[in-house]
Each structure stands twice: as C-alpha cells, then as structure tokens.
Queue: 3 jobs
Job 1
Amino acid sequence: MYFKDIIGQEEIKERLIESARNEVVPHAQLFCETGGGGAFPLALAYARYLNCTNRGETDACGHCPSCLKFNLFAHPDLHFVFPIVAKKEKKKEVCDDYLAEWRSFLNDRVYFNLDNWLEYLDAGNSQPLIYSKESDEIARKLSFRIYEADYRILLIWLPEKFHSTCANKLLKIIEEPPQHTVILLISEQPDLILGTIQSRSQRINVRPIAEEVMQAAMIERYGLSPDDALHVAHLSGGNYLKAMEAISLGEEKEYFLKLFKSMMRNSWARNVKGMKATADELASLGRERQKNFLAYCQHLIRENFVYRFQAPELNYMNAGEVGFSVKFSPFVNERNIVELMEELAKAELHITQNVNAKMVFFDLSLQLTVLIKK
C-alpha cells in the first residue's frame, strides 16, 4: 500500500511524510477512525515510506529492496498483530500462525474491516481476539536486532481486541520500545483501549473522507456520472466501504433489508409463526453478523424517522430502502422512535453478552408488535 492508494487524507499524509523526512518519528502512534477512512492503509504506507531507501517527495519509490518486500508484506522488520480466532487443535494460537492468510487477505484489498477479515477466515460464531500469548511473541520479536531497515515496525490492527492480560503486558513495551522501533496502532473503537496505552501513544484522528473527495474518487475509479457519484458519496458518510456497498447494493445489506422487512411485517400482523421463523433464521447467523443486523436496523429506524421530514439531504438510504420507507416511515414517529431504538440497542447488548439469540430476536419481535402500532 502506498500513499497514492489512499483517498483524500492529504493533511495526514503530509504530516507523516514530513515526520519521516525530518526523522522525528514518535515511537508509538495511534491511528483512530470510525471505519472506512483509510487508517490502516495510511499506517502501512507510512511504514513503507519510513524504510524506503529511495523516497520520493510524496511516496515511497516502489523499486528499492525494502519496497519490494513490502509489496509481499514480508519485510523482516515489519511485524503484524491482528485479531484472530485461536484453534488449539490446529495449533493456531498467535498471529504468525495466520500470517499466510493475512498476507493473502491484504493483497486483495486496500480498505477493509473486521467483518471482511472474519468472513475471509470463515470464523463463524467465534469472537476474534488478540490473545494473551501474543504479548510473549511481541516481546520475543522486539528482542531481536533490526535486520536491515532504519526502523523496525510493529503494526497492531484493532488494539481494542487485546485480551486484558496481553494489553497490560505490553504497557512497558509501548512506553519504552527498543531503539528504532515504531509501534503503529490502528483502532476503530479507541475508547475501548486501555487509557494507559492511549496516553503512551501519539493520537492521529483519521476523519471520514470529505464528500467532494469521495465523489471525485468514484468518478475517477469507477466511471460514475457526477450525479451518481455524488449520491454514492452522500450515502457513504465518508466511509469507503459503505461507498462500495452503495455501488454494488451489497449482498449483505440486501439480505439485512429482507430480514428487516420480514421482522416488521410479522410484528405488524402479529404473525407469531413468522416471528419465530425469522428469529430462527437470525439465530443461525454468526454473532458478529447478528450485531451488524441490529446496528443496520437502528440505522433504518433513524432513516425512516427522518424520511418523514421530506429532506433528502438528511437521508442516507439506497433505492431499495427508500422504496420500503415510503410505506413504512409513517409507523416510525415521535411516539415510538425512542423506544424502538432502545429495544434494538438492548437486543444488540444481549447478543454481545451471549444471550440465546432465538430468545433475543423473538422477544424483540414481540416488543415491536406494540411499538409500531403507537
């Protein structure tokens, strides 16, 4: 990944390039984003630029021995840490056990999220973590001498997934890493990271991609018309992954919309048999997908409430969602919006706490039968 691959974020790129050229490189940096803004590719492009032996004014050269190894994500002084699903029976308990899959995953994409990675791993219901054993692996790697680069890079994706034991063991390393070691942490939920880790890192806030920048990227990269590109940019909210969903309509989003329609129609009709069938189908999904569905439901409830104001610039729905909202939006109003959101948020919390999913979704449907008739 190069700086040129990243949409927008010019101010951050300039700051990172200046840091490398002036050799004023903080030993621990925390890249924070809400998703789809480019925090991971920024960190990786920065790591490449730091160790490029023939740097350009705005990017790494792409031809030196260091860049060629970065192309394969196989530089001996580049170390990755990322959430995994441990499989003791296969002796896969630390990140290096998944390194081949990780490199293949990175090779196919610049922007991604945790759901993409879990789907790639076929993780099912398993919860991803950076396990406690990883701290010993990190300490071991950093105890070796630097092989050939100016900087040894430790790139930690989603430190909010640290097991508490692992996080506490790494405090000393993050505060005082070995000489010429740079630790780059990339987070989408920085509030879940230990405060002591946050305080030991220089924070870089990666903002959502500006609408006009996203529009230009959609025109240049995908040949969209200016009007279509503007619509996609508006729907994305500065998230490149959501922009891709808007272009393709996203199989996952289409499936979630179908389930949302089914849930609401069953609740309106008091169709208990249909409620149970939908609850069973939702229970068969992995826990991460269940949480994503409930987050999607909250998004649609909000959008349907706003839809009643007849202000298109305030809405973020695709054509299929708008088509359903024409008839559904009158049932989301001042009398029930707060309770609807509360019930969906409560269901999401219960799924996170491993409450039986069939019970959660069936109970949610029963609650909706009362609320949507208000």
Job 2
Amino acid sequence: MRIATVKTGQMRGILLCALMTAFAYGALGQEFEVVSVKPNTSGSGGSHLSSDRAMLTGTNLSLKNLILMAYQIKDYQLEGPEWLASERFDIAARFPQALPADPVKYDAALGAMMQKMLAGRFRLAIHRDQKIFAVYGLVVGRKGIKFKAVADTGSSSKSNNTHYTGRGVSMSQFAEFLGRRMDLPVLDMTGLQGVYELTLNWVPEARESGDGKGAAADTPSGPSLLDALTEQLGLKLENRKAPLEIVVVDHADRVPVEN
C-alpha cells in the first residue's frame, strides 16, 4: 500500500510538471526579449533577485541559483560540479510582454525562458533522473481527519510563524507548505483527493535562554507544529523513503557567452 501511494504522488508531480511546461512553451514569450549576463567579481557574500511582470534582475547570483529557479527545484534536487555555487553573475532580462498574474502560470513561463537563456548563454546541458530520498509522508492519523472538504472554486492560503489558514487547498499543496518548515521534503500520502478548508495554530519550538539554562521564560505555551497537526487536523508525518526527480548538470560554461 505504501509503494502504491508513493507512485500516485509521484505521477501527480509528473503530470503537473508536464502541464506547466506545456503552458510555458505554448503561451506568451518563450524567451527573453533582451538579456544581459555578466560575471560578478565583487566577492560579496550577499545577492539580490527581483522580478515583476516586465523584468527580471539579479545581482551576485550563482549559476546554481539560476538553475534552481529555472527548473523550479529545491537545492537537494540538483547535482553538478561544485563551482556552480561559487561562480557569480549579474543578470538583467526583459520579458517580451507582461507575464500572467496567476502565480503558477507566471512561474512556468519564467522558468521556461530562464531555461532557454541558460542553454544559450552557459551552454547548459542537463538530464533528469530519480533518486531515493528520506522524506516525511503526510498521512491520516488513526482517528481520521478533523477538517472538511469544500467546493473547488479556487485556492487561497495565508500563513505566518504560528498560524496557517487555507481554503480550497489540496493535500499536496498543504504538504508543500509543511515541507518549507521541516528538515526533509514532505509528500502527500493521505490518499485524500478533494480540496479542503484548513486552520492550524501552533507555537515555535522553545528557544534557549541567553544564560544557557533552558528555554527562555517568554517562550509562549501551546502545541508544536507536529502536535497541532495531529490534534487540530488529524494528520501526522511519518518517516518514509521515496523517489524524487533530480536535475543532473552534464555541462555548463563558467564564462557566459557575451551579451
């Protein structure tokens, strides 16, 4: 049963990636109208990246940063030479026309244009593979779920360090939110197919006091994120292993093609 659940989640991810790629290449702007890429030799430890629906600008970015953004993957999903993280670049790129406001479509179109830019300027060549990773599986607790399904009329969510609310949220979307707060990727293994209304409240883990005598006195009381997940939603995280897609860099030039 566990293997079947993992394969189902994996297939959903593949289908989503295929749909996003199809949109990106079939919709507006398959490549940047104007691109400037220059080596940054400042030696600075800081970097900056910003984008809107007209321009992408970045300062002191590693090629690794750019690849992660282009392929919309996490750090652990990229394999390549170590210099990808050390060589730094400044980039300024103008979109051929305004990108869509929808965040999923925006990221897909931007990613497709960045992939083409990396292939042209850095002669980047990659292949995709799979690798087994330690993950957390999001599963239903033994007492069942404590939230309700809603009509699929759109998805929205809001969160901070102690609170999450979502409406029209799928379990894969919620797992992605949890993954940003955990030390391992979180995969949806609940088997729940609908979209739901979710509310979750927790307190941050206790901080050590400055004198090294344990938790600070001002640490608020309340459930941890994992305890709240079970108490308030009837869900839990379990240690699992699962195949995840990785991107392997076969070739990249250290010096980009001149502007």
Job 3
Amino acid sequence: MSLNLQTYTEHFTNPLYLDSGRILEPYDITYETYGTLNEEKSNVIVVCHALTGSHHAAGTYADDNKTGWWNGLIGPNKAVDTDKYFVICANVIGSCFGSTGPMSLMHPHHDHYRYKFPVVTIKDMVKAQRILFDRLDIHHVHAIIGGSMGGMQALQFAIHYPKFATKIIAMATTHATQPWAIAFNKVAQEAILKDPDFKQGYYDPEVIKEQGLSGMAIGRMAGHLSFLSHESMKRKFDREYKSTDGLYELFGKFQVESYLEYNGNNFAKWFDPLTYLYIIKAINIFDLSRGYDSLAEALQKVQTELHLISFSNDLLFKSYEMKEIDNVLSEIGNTNHTYLDIESDYGHDAFLVELDKFDTHIKEILHG
C-alpha cells in the first residue's frame, strides 16, 4: 500500500479568538494527510509537531528527498499504520511553513506582520486545529500523538477538548515549562535579537534564506545541547578532532564543534527567526494549570485514555515532570491512564530517533 501523502492549505475568515484577548483574522492552516479516511470517519489519528517541526511528518515530496520528521513511525505497516489509519498533521499557527505566522502577509495591506503578530499559546494552536477538523467534518478522532511541544498540544487537547479523542499519547513533554528549558530559550532569544543582521525584526526573509543568521545559528547550538545528553554526544563524537585542523590552532575544531556549527548554520537558513521567537514564547508560557487553581483541577477534565511516555535521560523535560502528571492523575482517582519511562541515554531527541524503543508500545495503545 502507498502512504497517500496529500498536502493542503485551508483559509479561515472567521476570527480566531486568542488566549491573549487578541484576534487573528483571516488565517491559514497548512496540513498533511496520510492513508485513507474510512466511511465512519473512525480511523483518524492526529499528529502534533514540535518546535521546529512542520506538517510534513512522513514520506517525501517529489522534488525533495528529505523525509518527514516522524517517517519511521508513520506509514504502511509502521506503528501508526496508514493502511489502517487516516493521519493528519497540521502546521501550528505561528509557524513558518504555510500556516499564518509572524512573516505572513497582513490583510489587507500585504505587509509582513512581524511584531504586529499576536503572541500565541499552545492552547491557541490546539484551538485552531480543532476549527480545522470541524471544517473537515471530523468531530472525534481515534488518537492524538505528539512529542515535546507536540506533547504539550496533546495534553492541551485532553483538557480543553476532553471528548475529542479516544486516546492521547504525550511523549517527552511537561505540564508546565520549567526554568531550565526557559533558560535555554533565553540564550536563543538574546542571540537572535543581538545580531545586527536581524535588523530588529525588519530583515529581508530572502536574505535570511540565502545567508542564514549567525545569531539564530548560535541560539540553535545552545538549544541543541538540551536535545542531546552527555552519553549520546560521547557516543557520537567522543574526543575526535577534525583531521584537517591542527591541535594547537586556536580555532581548530573537535568534531562536536563542527557538528554544532554545521547544524546551527544550516538551521538558520530554513527556519524563520521571528517564528522562532514567537514559538519559544508559546513554549515558555505553557502551563496546563493556567486558568485552574491547580494541576489537579486541570487534570480533572481529562476523559480520554491518556498515555504518558518519558525518556530517562531527557535533560529538557525531565522524567519526573511526566511522573508528576501520572501521580496527580492517580491522586484524583483517574484509572484510565498509563505512564512509561523509557530507558534511554540519548536525551530529549530520543522521541525522534530511538523509535524502536517505543513503536511497539504505540502500536499496542492504538490497537488495544
């Protein structure tokens, strides 16, 4: 069977009322689907992407050999089996891959929003997706799956739209972003803002695509440290030195330095800097208990079967942050949830890389 990858953009003219009290109108949402929707519309799985992800979760485009970010998990006979399920992944509001974000053109003058774009929250991203699903006449889904910021969205769905999904799987995430993660985001924010080529937000996007932005590259390097771990870096690079550099050259490089440079510089050419600032803001202010007296009160809303998965050596969102959700659910008498801490020394990015450690678990949850 084929993956049946399809990409669409929907245009909405009704106002989207945001958490901040501001309004976004009109707006677009770009999304991708895989597999085939059954007649009863009972086989839908929603996949939520992380900070720098997009709607392109699986497969490849005709003109590009780069596979979707969760390609190992989604497809025929994979854990999220597209022969069985109809999978939808929407690009979040605020992103730079087709959905309306800070570098979109503002109606009616056709200037980029830039700083006129409102701050959006994880809840806003989820609300916009829910409106998209309504338009597609999908009012209930079999499952929602997400890792990292995608996991935040999954948890937000569980509380905000308690009857929308039968099952929700949240991985490598947290119930509220902690100071460690906010601190890494601060380094990225400062690096971007202090780069003269950022031009206080009034850069030419075409120039950025061509040349990148060194501040953004530096910010990404810092972020990257939080995605890996001591062990995964040692395994990947150890103390290998670049064979073409002299040990006593001041700027001679270890392999790990080359890797960070390459990744950072590359990233700065394909991800928009203002988008990065807006999305890290959304991540920083994420707190499931906002608007409630406590996390317990928020989690009282959960009616879906909720599955929590953490990774033992995740430095960004520690296992105990997920365990806390599990504990609170148990304390309030929720018997319809599971928690699994996967033994891994890879770090935060394990949810993207070590699929063999959890794909069977996901398959069992979806089929069970």
